[in-house]
Design goal:
CATH class of the largest domain: Alpha Beta
Number of strands: 10
CATH architecture of the largest domain: 3-Layer(aba) Sandwich
Number of helices: 13
Number of domains: 2
Strand order of the largest sheet: 2-1-3-10-4
Amino acid sequence: MTASSVRFLRRAVALLLAGLAVAPAFAQDAATLRIGFQKYGTLTILKALGTLDKALAAQGIAVKWTEFPAGPQLLEGLNVGSIDFGTVGEAPPIFAQAAGAPLVYVGNEPPAPDSEAILVPKDSPVRSVADLKGRKVALNKGSNVHYLLVKLLEQAGVAYRDVNVAYLTPADARAAFERGAVDAWVIWDPFQAAAELQLGARVLADGKGVVNNYQFFLASRAYADRHPQVIRTVLEEIRKGDLWARENPAQAVDLLQPVLGLERPIVELAARRLAYGVQPVTREVLAHQQDIADAFHALKLIPRKLDVSQAAPAGLR
């Protein structure tokens, strides 16, 4: 065999092996929808119902569910390609898009402004948002509550830089809150409800009249473009699950309680503040997201100015 023949054979084998390595990945992509969820919200109810898994199984598609502690971590998973679809609050998509995540908004729940709040200990001397000046406030960086704090401080005439913001996960923030290491905690349900009922935490201010606190459903742009029918099926099953939960609140709590591992009164309080009724993303909703992006850029919380419309569904771009 000549040297050129040997080189040709080696290239052919290399290409064949590359093809064998790539093929299973594409097959898995087509046959499995990887969903990121948090231990709360309408996707958690849908997972417990099992109706989405059945609907997609009828199309030959399996569902792989992966739990994340918060929205920023979930969208990091989407950015690196470990999930295809997930749900988060308002702020995480802004940070993720700023980091170059190839995401697309595919739907949202109605506003739920009272399901996030600034909490203070029951005996705290802090009586207003203005009293937070110079104090230490805990929150999960890049979560929906990050924007809540920005807007509430703005409304109270306090500069963001005049508050000592401690970036902590919900678990670490609760521990810091309990031992008095922080003066306030900006948090969402069910952590909010748990702190209210277990610790007697006082709501200093929530999102009513300040933010919308949408729950967004997002997909990777590549997956949404390749599998629009799967995305339609997911949104339809979310719609059905929302309708069921709205009409059967006690049963919805029954589903959520073992997942959350919290006392029933806590789950009931949090569930009452959930918003049900998934709908397509509109230009008005994306305009609100643009306001958030602009606010974060002005505070240098994201490195560049964003055009949120670049993450809009194909029909709105």
